[in-house]
Design a protein that fits this description.
alpha+beta; two-stranded parallel ribbon; 5 helices
Length: 114
């Protein structure tokens, strides 16, 4: 992605979630993304996907991956980190204006965005 789009901080990135439970390297993916966020806080944004929850990540194996590689304490720190991630972001572009970005969709039971 960086070869195509450029590196932060020259290019800004908004990642839309589901960083874990996508293969054997979920821990390393999360650690890399968090390192990017810490290194380039104004250029890298991470939204929370449905897999960035304790129940879903446990069910699909992220908890076991963390336990096997680094210990359960890292998993619980990831869960705390997930709980701090925003669910949505608004991106302003000159071409299309304001765009609501989120991992999944909006609930039909949501009466307003205000």
């Amino acid at each position: 992605i960086f070869e195509l789009a450029g590196d932060p901080p020259d290019t800004r990135f908004l990642f839309l979630g589901d960083y874990v439970d996508r293969g054997k390297y979920s821990c390393e993916v999360m650690l890399y993304l968090l390192a990017l966020k810490l290194s380039f806080p104004d250029s890298v944004q991470l939204l929370r996907g449905n897999h960035e929850t304790a129940s879903v990540s446990k069910h699909f194996g992220f908890k076991e991956e963390c336990k096997a590689k680094y210990g359960l304490s890292l998993y619980y720190r990831f869960v705390l980190c997930f709980q701090c991630m925003p669910l949505a972001a608004v991106v302003e572009t000159p071409r299309v204006g304001r765009v609501l970005c989120l991992h999944g969709g909006l609930s039909p039971d949501l009466p307003t965005l205000e």
